Protein: Xylanolytic transcriptional activator regulatory domain-containing protein
Amino acid sequence: MLLPPGAPTACDSSTTAPTCVARIGGNTLRKHNIPVPVPTSTLDCHAYLVRRQGPSQAPPSPDQHPRSTHLGSLGHEIGTYSHRLDGRTTIPTTQHLGGCIDDELDQLSKRLGSLRVAEDGQLRYYGATSNMHLLNEAPGPQADSAPFCGYDADTCLAQAGVGHTVPRELEDHLIGLYFAWENPFIHVVDEDVFLNTRARTLSQSTTDPKSQSPYYNQVLVNAMCSIGSAFTDRIILELPSPLAEFFGRRARVLLDADMDSPSVATVQALVIMSAHEAAVMRDARGWLYSGMAMRLAVDLALHMDPDPYVKKGTMDQHDVVARRVAFWGTFLVDLGWSYYVGRLTMHINLDGVTVPKPSHKSGKSRAWTHYTDEAIQPFNEPAPRQYPDTIDHVLEHQVSLYVIMAQLQKIFNDIKLHSRGIVNSSTKKVTRDLIHWRQSLPPEISTESIFQSSITLPHTLLLHMQYHEVMIFANHPLIAGASGAMTTDIREGCAESARAIALILQIYKQQWSLRRMNIQGVHMIFSATLVHLLLSCTSEDSSTREAAVNDLKVCCEALKELSIAFRSATRALDSIAKTKEKWQASLDNPDMDTTLKTYFQVQQPISDPKIWQAVDEVICQEQNMHQSDPQLDDVSWLDKVDGYAGDDC
Structure:
């Protein structure tokens, strides 16, 4: 507490201990020109550290310090602190007289804030303007701020119509499918940390919120199961169908209470839930969940370098791994959503991110398991095959690729770039950066490895598909061409990448089948399909047109097969069909000189019926061959669910 001017600041010299001295600010000290007395105990300053590290880490007693220090010395200490500020939490460890005061002044001078224990017991980030960064920890939890207990959760699930008992064996299976097919490319959960925490949590009988880990909760479990359900062909008669919607609804119900005291698991759950919402075409909710995840990631300071807190004993290596994976996974999904819906992302500026980027050097040797429904079949079926995992290499270069994607997105959303020449000049730089990115890939995930190895893991193939999709956007004839005619290099650039995606799809299908693929693959295929449709309709060279039709067929077949897991793939097929009708009406009209004709350099109307017939056969065949999924037939239970109001619990 700062004393008002003129207030007494110290006892007389006969006082045996400076117990009557209040903590004061530097300005007050300078005004009264007095030395700083020794605090009664430094334990007040070190309370949080002592609780974390135990009595053995208690600071030295006051009598180990000199009795006083002068303002000049204090000013030197302040200057030293200010010079090395980095926005991180500083637990006071100073050995000089004014340790506590120096720490307070250090806190006051921070620009970026630090981690503090909030009312719910979670470490949260508070910036300098919040004033909360001045506190070592917040007051104790309020009576109504604790998460609801297991009974209340079960009650709310039952009222929402999703209170069914889920067998542990089914949960484990769906989580296994999630880790095999979704998490490697949207890597937001560290598998070892999660599984170890899950085993420890399930072995405990208590439901006390204080004993819960920040890396595990039922929202996260049900979110994982919702995605895992998309990769199974099993039908569970005891549970509502579709399974993905059942588990997605459970996660949504539980999320309402979890938001009172969100943790890292909440961030991870929101990321996964956003993927589920994309799969079922609820884009508004998915976009919202992705944004919420990024906001909470900052709230929990996942964007900050945890190393100082490890040195102080606040975190251990498990915390470091779980938090780093959660942040960069959230970053990837947030930017991925902005491309998916074509909106400017709201993610934080990377200049303010201090958490280290993923690196294969910090990873460990691990194996990827080819996990499917067959893994739980009886009769002693062979165990799922395992392969050396490339996930650390993939994640490292996926982040660097997304940094380039963020640059491209800024170009498309910069309203000041009216000139087509400026846009093309900017996208050419992005193209050069993309080429350099591909050339810098290590042998484990290089382009050559895809064609020379007998097995390439799904997430490695998806990384290359992502690269080619971004290359399409950087050279996209429907984006980059603001006016005039499409240039040859633009046409060839997007055509080459679209052909590459079709080729990678064939490799993926041959090695793994297209029944199981990360949800982001749908949009990559959609982007390539549009290019193949464009080339099929506008190419004057018959061989080019024939190759484009074949690639169009490959992509449409892939979307059809993926529609079993993701309804968004069906929407992509429908969009392709409608786009074809629109382009045909414009390009095949001899009496209309349309902008589309001018841009695509179509000199004569495309009157050859064989061209449109070939395209029609491909698109219509895949639309008509879409078979009904028994898990999508009966959704009557959703009528009750949609009337659920979480606040009533």
